[in-house]
Amino acid sequence: MSLIDITQGDSPLVLGLPHTGTDIPDDCLARLNDTGRAMADTDWHIHQLYDGLVADVTYVRTPVHRYVIDVNRDPSGASLYPGQNTTDLCPTTDFDGVPIYPSGEEPDDTEVERRRIAYHAPYHAALAAELERVKAIHGFAILYDCHSIRSHIPFLFDGTLPDFNIGTNNGATCTPELVERTMHICSNAKGYTAILNGRFKGGWTTRHYGQPADGIHAIQMELAQSTYLASETPPWSYDPSRADHLRRHLTSILESLSDWRPQ
Protein backbone atom coordinates (compact mmCIF):
# COMPACT_ATOMS: atom_id res chain seq x y z
CA MET A 1 0.00 0.00 0.00
CA SER A 2 1.37 3.38 -1.02
CA LEU A 3 1.55 5.56 2.07
CA ILE A 4 1.94 9.08 0.66
CA ASP A 5 1.27 10.64 -2.73
CA ILE A 6 3.40 13.72 -3.41
CA THR A 7 3.35 16.06 -6.39
CA GLN A 8 6.02 18.72 -6.13
CA GLY A 9 5.74 22.28 -7.36
CA ASP A 10 7.93 25.31 -6.78
CA SER A 11 5.33 27.92 -5.83
CA PRO A 12 4.89 28.83 -2.14
CA LEU A 13 1.59 26.91 -1.97
CA VAL A 14 1.28 23.39 -0.53
CA LEU A 15 -2.07 21.59 -0.58
CA GLY A 16 -2.71 19.02 2.14
CA LEU A 17 -5.16 16.21 1.35
CA PRO A 18 -5.60 14.23 4.57
CA HIS A 19 -9.06 12.68 4.18
CA THR A 20 -9.59 11.73 0.52
CA GLY A 21 -8.11 8.24 0.81
CA THR A 22 -10.24 5.10 0.79
CA ASP A 23 -7.53 2.48 1.40
CA ILE A 24 -8.01 0.35 4.51
CA PRO A 25 -5.44 -2.36 5.26
CA ASP A 26 -6.90 -5.85 5.49
CA ASP A 27 -6.18 -6.21 9.20
CA CYS A 28 -8.06 -2.98 9.94
CA LEU A 29 -10.89 -3.73 7.51
CA ALA A 30 -11.54 -7.09 9.15
CA ARG A 31 -12.28 -5.37 12.46
CA LEU A 32 -14.78 -2.82 11.13
CA ASN A 33 -18.55 -3.35 11.05
CA ASP A 34 -20.76 -2.52 8.07
CA THR A 35 -20.99 1.12 9.14
CA GLY A 36 -17.22 1.42 9.18
CA ARG A 37 -16.80 -0.34 5.85
CA ALA A 38 -19.21 2.16 4.25
CA MET A 39 -16.60 4.91 4.86
CA ALA A 40 -19.32 7.57 4.88
CA ASP A 41 -17.03 10.23 6.35
CA THR A 42 -14.61 10.32 3.43
CA ASP A 43 -13.81 13.71 1.90
CA TRP A 44 -15.20 12.33 -1.34
CA HIS A 45 -13.43 13.31 -4.58
CA ILE A 46 -11.61 16.26 -3.03
CA HIS A 47 -8.37 15.36 -4.82
CA GLN A 48 -10.33 15.37 -8.10
CA LEU A 49 -11.98 18.69 -7.26
CA TYR A 50 -8.62 20.43 -6.66
CA ASP A 51 -6.65 18.68 -9.39
CA GLY A 52 -5.07 21.06 -11.91
CA LEU A 53 -6.60 24.27 -10.59
CA VAL A 54 -3.32 26.19 -10.55
CA ALA A 55 0.15 25.45 -11.84
CA ASP A 56 3.26 24.64 -9.85
CA VAL A 57 1.66 23.86 -6.49
CA THR A 58 2.65 20.97 -4.25
CA TYR A 59 0.15 18.26 -3.23
CA VAL A 60 0.62 15.91 -0.27
CA ARG A 61 -2.04 13.19 0.05
CA THR A 62 -2.47 10.05 2.10
CA PRO A 63 -4.50 7.30 0.39
CA VAL A 64 -5.25 5.73 3.79
CA HIS A 65 -8.78 6.23 5.08
CA ARG A 66 -9.43 8.32 8.18
CA TYR A 67 -11.06 5.33 9.93
CA VAL A 68 -7.61 3.73 10.06
CA ILE A 69 -6.19 6.88 11.65
CA ASP A 70 -7.11 10.53 11.27
CA VAL A 71 -3.96 12.36 10.23
CA ASN A 72 -5.68 15.68 11.00
CA ARG A 73 -5.95 14.86 14.71
CA ASP A 74 -3.44 15.59 17.45
CA PRO A 75 -1.19 12.52 17.68
CA SER A 76 -1.41 12.77 21.47
CA GLY A 77 -5.14 12.13 21.25
CA ALA A 78 -6.09 15.51 22.73
CA SER A 79 -9.41 16.90 21.50
CA LEU A 80 -9.33 19.82 19.07
CA TYR A 81 -12.82 20.88 20.14
CA PRO A 82 -13.19 20.32 23.90
CA GLY A 83 -16.81 20.03 24.97
CA GLN A 84 -18.07 19.38 21.43
CA ASN A 85 -18.84 16.12 19.69
CA THR A 86 -15.96 15.02 17.49
CA THR A 87 -14.08 11.87 16.49
CA ASP A 88 -10.83 10.47 17.86
CA LEU A 89 -7.33 9.95 16.49
CA CYS A 90 -8.43 6.42 15.60
CA PRO A 91 -12.18 6.94 15.28
CA THR A 92 -14.53 4.47 16.92
CA THR A 93 -17.72 6.15 15.67
CA ASP A 94 -18.75 7.88 12.48
CA PHE A 95 -19.85 11.52 12.26
CA ASP A 96 -23.35 10.52 13.34
CA GLY A 97 -22.05 8.98 16.56
CA VAL A 98 -22.67 5.43 15.33
CA PRO A 99 -20.03 2.79 16.25
CA ILE A 100 -17.83 1.64 13.35
CA TYR A 101 -16.53 -1.44 15.22
CA PRO A 102 -18.32 -4.39 16.82
CA SER A 103 -18.05 -4.21 20.60
CA GLY A 104 -14.61 -5.34 21.69
CA GLU A 105 -12.93 -4.79 18.31
CA GLU A 106 -12.02 -1.13 18.85
CA PRO A 107 -8.27 -0.40 18.62
CA ASP A 108 -6.54 -0.36 22.01
CA ASP A 109 -3.68 1.95 22.95
CA THR A 110 -1.08 -0.37 21.47
CA GLU A 111 -2.92 -0.55 18.15
CA VAL A 112 -3.44 3.22 18.06
CA GLU A 113 0.28 3.74 18.54
CA ARG A 114 1.09 1.21 15.82
CA ARG A 115 -1.17 3.07 13.39
CA ARG A 116 0.28 6.42 14.41
CA ILE A 117 3.78 5.23 13.55
CA ALA A 118 2.71 3.45 10.36
CA TYR A 119 0.38 6.07 8.85
CA HIS A 120 0.16 9.34 10.79
CA ALA A 121 3.89 9.98 11.17
CA PRO A 122 4.83 9.38 7.50
CA TYR A 123 2.14 11.75 6.26
CA HIS A 124 3.37 14.54 8.50
CA ALA A 125 7.01 13.83 7.76
CA ALA A 126 6.21 14.29 4.06
CA LEU A 127 4.10 17.39 4.64
CA ALA A 128 6.71 19.00 6.87
CA ALA A 129 9.44 18.26 4.34
CA GLU A 130 7.50 19.86 1.48
CA LEU A 131 6.70 22.94 3.51
CA GLU A 132 10.37 23.32 4.39
CA ARG A 133 11.37 22.76 0.77
CA VAL A 134 9.18 25.54 -0.62
CA LYS A 135 10.04 27.78 2.32
CA ALA A 136 13.71 27.38 1.39
CA ILE A 137 12.87 28.62 -2.11
CA HIS A 138 10.70 31.61 -1.16
CA GLY A 139 11.44 32.35 2.48
CA PHE A 140 7.88 31.37 3.41
CA ALA A 141 5.27 28.71 2.67
CA ILE A 142 1.46 28.58 2.62
CA LEU A 143 -0.37 25.41 3.61
CA TYR A 144 -3.91 25.14 2.29
CA ASP A 145 -5.59 22.12 3.89
CA CYS A 146 -8.34 20.67 1.70
CA HIS A 147 -11.44 19.17 3.32
CA SER A 148 -15.13 18.52 2.76
CA ILE A 149 -18.02 17.26 4.86
CA ARG A 150 -21.75 16.66 4.63
CA SER A 151 -23.73 19.84 5.13
CA HIS A 152 -26.18 18.23 7.62
CA ILE A 153 -24.68 16.33 10.57
CA PRO A 154 -26.72 16.98 13.75
CA PHE A 155 -24.21 15.04 15.89
CA LEU A 156 -21.52 17.59 15.03
CA PHE A 157 -23.37 20.85 14.40
CA ASP A 158 -26.83 22.42 14.26
CA GLY A 159 -28.55 23.39 11.04
CA THR A 160 -26.89 23.57 7.64
CA LEU A 161 -23.17 24.13 7.27
CA PRO A 162 -22.08 27.10 5.13
CA ASP A 163 -20.52 26.24 1.78
CA PHE A 164 -17.06 27.66 2.51
CA ASN A 165 -15.77 27.08 6.05
CA ILE A 166 -12.42 28.79 6.53
CA GLY A 167 -10.36 27.92 9.59
CA THR A 168 -7.32 29.74 10.97
CA ASN A 169 -7.68 28.92 14.68
CA ASN A 170 -9.13 32.38 15.27
CA GLY A 171 -6.41 34.11 13.29
CA ALA A 172 -3.40 32.38 14.85
CA THR A 173 -2.25 30.31 11.86
CA CYS A 174 -1.68 32.84 9.10
CA THR A 175 -1.28 36.52 8.30
CA PRO A 176 -4.54 38.52 8.17
CA GLU A 177 -3.93 39.43 4.53
CA LEU A 178 -4.24 35.80 3.42
CA VAL A 179 -7.49 35.50 5.36
CA GLU A 180 -8.82 38.67 3.76
CA ARG A 181 -7.97 37.42 0.28
CA THR A 182 -9.70 34.10 0.88
CA MET A 183 -12.76 35.56 2.59
CA HIS A 184 -13.19 38.23 -0.09
CA ILE A 185 -13.45 35.60 -2.82
CA CYS A 186 -15.72 33.31 -0.80
CA SER A 187 -18.01 36.08 0.40
CA ASN A 188 -18.45 37.38 -3.14
CA ALA A 189 -19.04 33.98 -4.73
CA LYS A 190 -22.62 34.30 -5.95
CA GLY A 191 -24.90 31.55 -4.71
CA TYR A 192 -22.53 30.39 -1.96
CA THR A 193 -22.28 31.04 1.77
CA ALA A 194 -19.09 31.45 3.78
CA ILE A 195 -17.91 31.68 7.36
CA LEU A 196 -14.57 32.27 9.07
CA ASN A 197 -13.68 30.23 12.18
CA GLY A 198 -17.17 28.88 12.67
CA ARG A 199 -17.70 25.25 13.65
CA PHE A 200 -14.43 24.34 11.95
CA LYS A 201 -11.49 26.47 13.06
CA GLY A 202 -8.77 24.31 11.55
CA GLY A 203 -7.65 20.84 12.53
CA TRP A 204 -4.36 19.74 14.04
CA THR A 205 -2.56 20.17 10.72
CA THR A 206 -3.51 23.83 10.41
CA ARG A 207 -2.80 24.55 14.05
CA HIS A 208 0.48 22.65 14.16
CA TYR A 209 2.08 24.06 11.01
CA GLY A 210 0.54 27.52 10.98
CA GLN A 211 3.37 29.56 12.53
CA PRO A 212 3.37 32.93 10.73
CA ALA A 213 6.28 34.26 12.77
CA ASP A 214 8.38 31.38 11.42
CA GLY A 215 7.26 31.92 7.82
CA ILE A 216 4.65 29.15 7.51
CA HIS A 217 1.03 30.19 7.08
CA ALA A 218 -1.86 27.72 7.18
CA ILE A 219 -5.53 27.85 6.22
CA GLN A 220 -8.09 25.05 6.37
CA MET A 221 -10.92 25.01 3.85
CA GLU A 222 -13.86 22.79 4.77
CA LEU A 223 -16.33 22.63 1.89
CA ALA A 224 -19.92 21.51 2.21
CA GLN A 225 -20.20 18.44 -0.01
CA SER A 226 -23.47 19.73 -1.42
CA THR A 227 -21.37 22.19 -3.44
CA TYR A 228 -19.86 19.54 -5.71
CA LEU A 229 -21.52 16.13 -5.14
CA ALA A 230 -24.68 14.89 -6.80
CA SER A 231 -25.84 13.74 -3.38
CA GLU A 232 -24.45 13.61 0.15
CA THR A 233 -25.64 10.00 0.41
CA PRO A 234 -24.31 6.85 -1.30
CA PRO A 235 -22.83 6.57 -3.85
CA TRP A 236 -21.51 10.10 -3.23
CA SER A 237 -21.10 10.76 -6.94
CA TYR A 238 -19.08 13.67 -8.26
CA ASP A 239 -21.31 16.19 -10.05
CA PRO A 240 -19.24 17.73 -12.90
CA SER A 241 -21.56 20.69 -13.35
CA ARG A 242 -21.60 21.68 -9.69
CA ALA A 243 -17.90 20.94 -9.35
CA ASP A 244 -16.89 23.02 -12.37
CA HIS A 245 -18.80 26.00 -11.01
CA LEU A 246 -17.10 25.63 -7.64
CA ARG A 247 -13.68 25.05 -9.21
CA ARG A 248 -13.76 28.53 -10.70
CA HIS A 249 -13.91 30.03 -7.21
CA LEU A 250 -11.33 27.62 -5.83
CA THR A 251 -9.02 28.59 -8.66
CA SER A 252 -9.39 32.24 -7.71
CA ILE A 253 -8.55 31.43 -4.10
CA LEU A 254 -5.46 29.39 -4.93
CA GLU A 255 -4.22 31.92 -7.49
CA SER A 256 -4.61 34.72 -4.97
CA LEU A 257 -2.75 32.78 -2.28
CA SER A 258 0.00 31.78 -4.72
CA ASP A 259 0.51 35.41 -5.78
CA TRP A 260 0.85 36.73 -2.21
CA ARG A 261 4.26 37.80 -0.95
CA PRO A 262 5.15 39.11 2.52
CA GLN A 263 5.79 42.81 2.72
TrEMBL record:
GO terms for molecular function: formimidoylglutamase activity. Pfam families: FGase (PF05013). Keywords: Hydrolase. It comes from the Bacteria. Transmembrane segments: none annotated. The keyword Signal does not apply. InterPro entries: HutG_amidohyd, N-FG_amidohydro. The keyword Coiled coil does not apply. It is an enzyme of class 3 (hydrolase). Its EC number is 3.5.3.8. This is N-formylglutamate amidohydrolase. It comes from Roseovarius mucosus DSM 17069. The lineage of its organism: Bacteria, Pseudomonadati, Pseudomonadota, Alphaproteobacteria, Rhodobacterales.
